[in-house]
Design a protein that fits this description.
single chain; about 200 residues; alpha/beta; Rossmann fold; Arc Repressor Mutant, subunit A; six-stranded parallel sheet; 10 helices; 6 strands; Response regulator transcription factor; CheY-like_superfamily; phosphoprotein; WalR-like; Sig_transdc_resp-reg_receiver
């Protein structure tokens, strides 16, 4: 019987090592590569063509969600399982929209991750039912452009620099920020960014 070939992506070395060791104990799983950021993850998937990618959400550079979206754009056959500490509806919703087939929280038993990998490899989708309901109940009200502007504002960039990076007029940037602030029911861009990040929308 051929083994299920895995790439693991996690920016914390200790966690990555633990996952790799535990999954390698399973007779039907083979960890063929590991990565510590989004760019290396894409490269590892391209180099090794794994059956399943097990990835964290928050990593340097590209996030796990960014990686999932890019792999979907490329038409990669690799199935994706997200393993994260974040039970945020926004993250899960974006994961599902990016074609992620499994979503597991890090505090779940390792047996649950192993079972998820096997079921995802077999063509299934594995998501905690309560989280799935939350994902669709907690819809992101912002547009992609509003998210882009708010993400840069959250990094402390002034409107002029945001406008330059996104090739927009400063007035347009102000309008996007104002709309996002109104939609989120907060007083300023700092609160808007905090709320959006807490909900997994940025």
């Amino acid at each position: 019987m051929s083994k299920i070939r895995l790439v693991l992506a996690e920016d914390q070395a200790m966690v990555l090592g633990a996952f790799a060791q535990l999954l390698a104990l399973e007779p039907d799983l083979d960890v063929v590569a590991t990565a510590t950021d989004g760019t290396r993850t894409l490269a590892a998937v391209a180099d090794h063509d794994p059956d399943v990618l097990v990835t964290d959400v928050e990593m340097p550079g590209l996030s796990g969600l960014d990686v999932a979206a890019e792999l979907r754009r490329r038409g990669t056959r690799t199935r994706i399982v997200i393993v994260t500490t974040f039970a945020r509806s926004g993250y899960l919703r974006r994961a599902l929209e990016s074609g992620v087939a499994g979503y597991v929280l890090k505090d779940a038993p390792i047996d649950q991750l192993v079972d998820t990998v096997r079921r995802v490899h077999a063509g299934g989708r594995v998501v905690d039912p309560a989280l799935a309901v939350a994902a669709w109940d907690g819809a992101d009200p912002m547009t992609d452009r509003e998210r882009d502007v708010l993400r840069l504002a959250a990094d402390g960039l002034p409107n002029s620099e945001i406008a330059a990076q996104l090739h927009l007029a400063e007035g347009t940037v102000r309008n996007y920020l104002s709309t996002a602030i109104t939609k989120l029911g907060v007083r300023n861009r700092i609160e808007a960014a905090r709320v959006a990040r807490d909900r997994g929308w940025l």
